[in-house]
Amino acid sequence: SSSSPSSSFSSSSSSSSSSSSSVAGWRRIGGPILCYRSFSSLPKDGTAPITESEPPTPDTPNTPPASPPAASPAESLYKRARSLYREGTAQEVGAAPDWYAEFKELLQEAIALDPAYVESYLLRAAVNNAVLGDTEAAMQDFAAALAQDPNNKRILLMRASVADQRGMQEQALEDYTQLIELDPQDGYALGARAMLYLRAGEMQKAEGDVLKAMEVDPYNASHIRAHVVLLVSSSNLPEALAQCSKAVKQEPCNPANNELRARTILTYLSEDKGAGDTPGLTKLDGSLLPQLRDDMLRTACEDLERVCLLVPLNWRAHLHLGTVHGLKGKFDLAVQSYDRALDIVASDTQENASFASIDILFNKASALLSMSESEQARSVAQLCSERAHAYRGNLPPAYFDAIESLVEQCSQQ
Fold first, then answer.
1. What is the pLDDT of residues 315-325, one digit of tens each?
2. Could you give the CA distance from residue 377 to residue 361 in angstroms, rounded to a whole number?
3. What is the Cα–Cα distance from 381 to 384, expressed in whole angstroms?
4. Following CA atoms 176, 181, 184, 186 in sequence, which dihedral angle do they give, to the nearest 10 degrees?
5. Are 60 and 52 a contacting pair, CB within 8 Å?
6. Could you give the CA distance from residue 203 to residue 296 in angstroms, rounded to a whole number?
7. Among the residues of 90-236, which ranges form H helices?
8. Residue 69 confidence class, pLDDT cut points 50, 70, 90
9. What pTM does this model have?
C-alpha cells in the first residue's frame, strides 16, 4: 500500500525547498508555507503594501492638517527615476533593461544630493530585487535607508518581505521582531513572524504570535491561514477545516485560501493524517462515512480547479488536483494533472525544481499502475528513483523504500 501525499510547508525561497524541516502534520515535499507577503506584490514605486490590518485613517475633526515636510532637493530626481521604472518595466524584463543606466545615474545623483532622502534607496532596492534579482544590493540599500531612519516601519517591513521571500530567515525574523517592538499591535508583523516560527518548528512561539495577531485583527485571512497551519501541526483537523472555510469566506477571491482548504481536506481524509514522510497517493481513512468523504473530495476538487484556473503555474495545485482525481478513481485525469505539474516544474530554472518533480513522478507512476499501464509506469517510476537518489542526503530512508517498492511493483506487472 502507498502512503498519503507529500504536503510539507517548506520555505518558498529558491534556497530552502530541499532542506527545510517539515512541520508536524505536513510532509516534506508538495507545497510551501508561503512568505506572508512577497516583495513582488509591492507597488512599483517601492512603497510598503497596505495590509488587511491597516484600516483607513479617518479625518480627525477640529484638528488642523499637519504641515507637509519640506521638499528634498533630491525629490525631482527620484520622481524622474520612478517614471523610468514605471514606464520601462512593462516593456523591458531582464538583467539590464534599456532604461536602467539612466535610472541608476539619477538615483546616484539624488543620493549624493540628499543622503537622508530614503525614497531613493528604497526605489533602487525595489529594482535591484525585482528586476535585476540582486538581493544583496537590495539589502545594502535597505541598510543605507535604515541608517538614516532606524525605526522606520515601512523600510523594516520592505526588508523583512524581501528577506522572507529570499530565504533569509534570520534577517526576516529580526525585522519582524523590531516591528513588533515598535508596535505590539502590528498584526501583520505578528502573523508573518508566526509563519517563520512555524517553518522553524517553534510551535509555542508560533502559537503566541498567531493568537495575538488574530486578537488584533480577527478577520485577517492571512492570520487565519497561519492559524490553520498551526492547527494541522497539532492534529486539530476539524477546527483547521472550519478555519479554512472562514478564510475562504473572508477572502473569496484569494486562491491561497482554496488551496489551503483542499490540502487540509486531503490530510483529513488520509489514513495517517499526513504524519508520514514518504511519497505517494493518499490511502483513505476507512472510518470516514462515504457521504462525508465524497462531499469533502468534491470541495477539494472545486478548490483546486479554481486555484489552477487563477494561478495556472502553481504546480502544487496541479499535483494535489491529481491526487483528488486519483481518490475519485479518475486516473486518466490524475495523469493529466501530474503531467501539467511536471511541465511547470520543468520550466522552473530554480535549483529545487528537479527535487520537486520526485513527488509528482511517484504519483504519476502510481496512477499509471492503477490503469494497468505497466510499461509507462515502470519508466516513470525509474525516473523518479534516479532523481530521488540525486537528493539522497535530503530524504529519509523511508522515502527511498517507498520509491523502490513502487519500481518493483511496476516491474512485476
1. 999 999 999 99
2. 9
3. 5
4. -30
5. no
6. 28
7. 100-113, 118-130, 135-148, 153-165, 169-182, 187-199, 203-216, 221-233
8. low
9. 0.68
